[in-house]
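REVIEWER CHECKLIST
Item 1: Sequence provided? yes
Item 2: Single chain? yes
Item 3: Sequence as submitted:
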Amino acid sequence: MTHTLRVVFAGTPEFAAAALAAIHEAGFAVPLVLTQPDRPAGRGMKLQASAVKRYAVEHGLPVAQPPSLRRGGKFPAEAAAAIDRLRATPHDVMVVAAYGLLLPQEVLDIPPHGCINIHASLLPRWRGAAPIHRALEAGDAQTGITLMRMDAGLDTGAMIDVGRTPIDPLDTTATLHDKLAAQGARLIVAALATLERNGVLSSTPQPADGVTYAEKIAKHEAALDWRRPAAALARQVRAFDPFPGGVATLEDGTTLKVWSAEPVSAPCDNANAEPGTLVEVSPEGVAVACGDGALRLTQLQKPGGKRLPAREFLAGAALARGQRLLLPDTR
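Item 4: Structure as written out by the authors:
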């Protein structure tokens, strides 16, 4: 099926690429794709194209990669050129998903039908950069996708549509990301079809209550603080998979990545063990005393090694009951 609506798309990672693919495969014309510049990545730190750019290039879609869209920023010439190109590209609406660049009001005003953002939370909860991680970390029972009319604020625009997704007890950021990417792709295609058919999309202002912010994940947050409850640490491990992972540090300074863990009751004879003490080492996992209960580490990784189930990890690691893991400095 072909459509008459012309869609400029702005996005960068896999989450956005899923939406771009759905829009293109549904038959909407995509006269321009905006994505962030190629970044160095991997061990060789070679420049790598974003997931959105890779899809666009493979399907012959025009791509622009400005480092900024703000005329008053560090790259005024590049921003001006990108804005000029956007103005010169006939289109009806812009769809934005995890683009990673600020869109100034000047850009928001260019598309005749405005800019629609695909945001991975139930707004106004978890506005900001890391909504999937923060929903998992907080223990939310559900999350979802909000299609939002973009304004100059941080995820403050009126809501066009909402889709809800329950959070499974075993979900990680990786698994939840994939569910939400697919849901966002479905919702945006349906919204674009409605816009084409009716010439307008109705929207509702976000509630004033319930606003929270999903701060970007920082590497230092990976450190597991054994003084916290085991249930909270288990959520942290799930939330930080695939980045940055949970980090446990042995007394000799060796850091271990923790990729899977579950809260358990500490053995009776270790019920009062100091947080960070290994209270059980078995093929089922390494149980660590916490501020409340114990956390059984079931998938671990040595520096430079692979993720391994506890049984395989322990075959090459000298961990024993009574050993201590360091507590992170929280100052």
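Item 5: Key structural point noted by reviewer: Residues 7-214 form a domain with the Rossmann fold fold (CATH 3.40.50.170).
Item 6: Recommendation: ____
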